[in-house]
């Protein structure tokens, strides 16, 4: 790897298909972390394998939805050995992540009502591997606050497209200053606090795509939330699902 080369990873996308893969390659990404909401780990792994090829590595991840709908805290986990459901307590999820020695990332800290705050990050500092300091949904004050949090805890940083829309893929990435060969190498780079840069596109198109991603929050918290709560029944990642056995009965929130 020459001084001008890097391994470019979008560390959090919600969408994955042939169009997403083409965009990722077109914009020079080497890897994506695929972590859709409310999807069982086995299905995420299968889809990641389906879209991984010699040009693009797709890494399975889980953005864990801890707590209830009224008190949500998201945690991004990579390198899971066993599945962890949503709708468990934050303490229960973190204990299981510690047991599995998973890579623990803090997405969008203190963002709206779905994120870890300073107190929670402080409580679990020893197992947190990085804090997100930029994604397209951020406004300028979110960016500044996230950077301040990462600096105050001396934690490594990362950026992602946090893409809920396909056209957002390729807008943000984390560039590691080392050769990475496969999933295990990426997990090691995150655990070892490998040098990296958070980079993103600029200009009018980037601003429009950021606005579109932020606007998507309204859709996600109205139409899709109604579907999940009223129409769809129990989530596939609810701890009551047979997939999880009874391992999380003591920490489930409903």
UniProtKB/TrEMBL annotation:
Alphabetical list of Pfam families matching this protein: PHP_C
Q: What is this protein's name? A: PHP domain-containing protein
Source organism = Halococcus dombrowskii
Q: What is the lineage of its organism?
A: Archaea, Methanobacteriati, Methanobacteriota, Stenosarchaea group, Halobacteria
């Amino acid at each position: 790897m020459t001084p001008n080369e890097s391994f470019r990873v979008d560390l959090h996308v919600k969408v994955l298909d042939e169009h997403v893969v083409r965009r990722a390659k077109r914009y020079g990404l080497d890897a994506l972390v695929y972590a859709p909401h409310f999807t069982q780990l086995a299905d995420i792994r299968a889809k990641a394998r389906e879209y991984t090829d010699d040009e693009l590595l797709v890494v399975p991840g889980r953005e864990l939805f801890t707590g209830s709908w009224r008190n949500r805290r998201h945690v991004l986990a990579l390198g899971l050995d066993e599945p962890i459901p949503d709708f468990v307590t934050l303490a229960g999820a973190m204990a299981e992540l510690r047991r599995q020695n998973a890579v623990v990332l803090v997405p969008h800290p203190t963002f709206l009502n779905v994120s870890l705050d300073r107190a929670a990050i402080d409580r679990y500092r020893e197992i947190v591997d990085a804090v997100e300091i930029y994604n397209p949904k951020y406004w300028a004050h979110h960016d500044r606050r996230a950077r301040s949090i990462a600096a105050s805890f001396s934690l490594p940083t990362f950026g992602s497209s946090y893409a809920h829309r396909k056209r957002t893929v390729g807008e943000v990435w984390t560039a590691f200053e080392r050769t990475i060969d496969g999933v295990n190498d990426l997990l090691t780079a995150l655990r070892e606090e490998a040098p990296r840069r958070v980079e993103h596109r600029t200009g009018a198109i980037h601003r429009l795509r950021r606005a579109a991603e932020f606007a998507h929050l309204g859709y996600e918290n109205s139409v899709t939330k109604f579907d999940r709560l009223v129409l769809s029944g129990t989530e596939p990642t609810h701890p009551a699902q047979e997939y999880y056995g009874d391992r999380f009965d003591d920490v489930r929130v409903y």
